[in-house]
Amino acid sequence: MRRERLTGPRPVRSALHTVDLDLAEGASLGVIGESGSGKTTLVRLLLGLDTPTRGAVTVDGRPVVRRRTGGRGTDLRWLRRQTGIVFQDPYASLDPRMDVGTIVAEPLHALGLAGTPDETDDVVARVLTAVGLEPAMVDRYPHEFSGGQRQRIALARALVHRPRLLVGDEPLSALDVTVRAQILDLLRGLRADLGLTLILVSHDIGVVAHLCDQVLVLKDGRTVESGATADVLAHPRADYTRSLLAAVPRL
After folding, report:
1. Is a pLDDT exceeding 50 seen at residue 245?
2. In this structure, are strands 28-32 and 214-219 parallel, antiparallel, or unpaired?
3. What are the residues facing 227 on neighbouring strands?
4. Which residues pair with 169 in a beta bridge?
5. Are 182 and 148 in contact (CB under 8 A)?
6. Mean of pLDDT values over 158-166
7. What is the pTM of this model?
8. Which H helix or E strand runs over 154?
9. How far apart are CA 4 and CA 34, in angstroms?
10. If one looks up domain 28-51+73-246 in CATH, what number appears?
């Protein structure tokens, strides 16, 4: 039996291998695959939340590189201004100590985009209205809302600074079927109205089929196949993709 010292070098595991991805502005991409396939790692690299050991990520030809500035932060504010993200659990992603107005306005202050208090209040009111919430809700706290309403709050926070790219990491999986359909319709409408580029990570192939023009299938950190969503889902080339489609429940 081979023994390894506890103080020895840590084993290296690759969460993501070579993935070539080119997304045009205004496009919508669905990333699908089983748990552990590398979907979230890919998103974190695209957003500059992690640093790749090899390869490069560029936005408008500008490299996404996490370099330390004079303080504790990194010099990726330019990227943060262009991107917004919605996470899987709408309750865990919202600070329970903050009211809705503070939560939604937080990106404006963090990115140096906030104007006067009245101007900021107007921006928050407009984005809450856009996601189907009443502006009068700004004084309430996350625990006072349903799951669907909390996800709308998270969506408002992701859109308040008017990003060009919206990333959803399983944004619908924690919601029931009825609420999921409502948020799906909301995302489709917002994408059309705001001209958003969309990257959607999801286990739900039906959501990807309805919302995304392109699809990327990952397995063990590698690209299995990619292309137009309608083509890949109707005529999958890879056995793995066919297995994913065969696992979709049908009534």
Report:
1. yes
2. parallel
3. 215
4. 201
5. yes
6. 93
7. 0.86
8. helix 147-159
9. 31
10. 3.40.50.300
232 secondary structure, DSSP code: H
Task: Give the pLDDT band (50/70/90) at residue 3.
Answer: low
Give the number of residues written for the chain: 251
Neighbour count for residue 221 (Cβ, 10 Å) = 19
* Rg, C-alpha atoms of the chain: 20
Q: What is the rounded (10 degree) CA torsion for 197, 193, 154, 109?
A: 90
Q: Of 197, 204, 200, 164, which Cα lies nearest the Cα of 181?
A: 204
Q: At 242, which helix (H) or strand (E)?
A: helix 239-246
Q: What is the pLDDT of residues 12-71, one digit of tens each?
A: 677 787 788 888 888 999 999 888 888 888 888 888 888 888 888 888 888 887 665 554
What pLDDT digit, counting tens, does each position of 104-159 carry? Answer: 999 999 999 988 999 999 999 999 999 889 999 999 999 999 888 998 999 999 99
Q: How far is CA 54 from CA 18, 65, 100, 215, 216, in A?
A: 9, 12, 40, 23, 20
What is the rounded CA–CA span in Å between residue 203 and residue 249? 12
What residue spans define the domains of the chain?
28-51+73-246
Sheet with 83-86, strands from edge to edge, namely: 83-86, 165-169, 197-201, 28-32, 214-219, 222-228
- Are the beta carbons of 64 and 247 closer than 8 angstroms? no
Residue type, 224: V
3-state class percentages of the chain: helix first, strand second, coil last, to nearest 5:
40, 15, 45
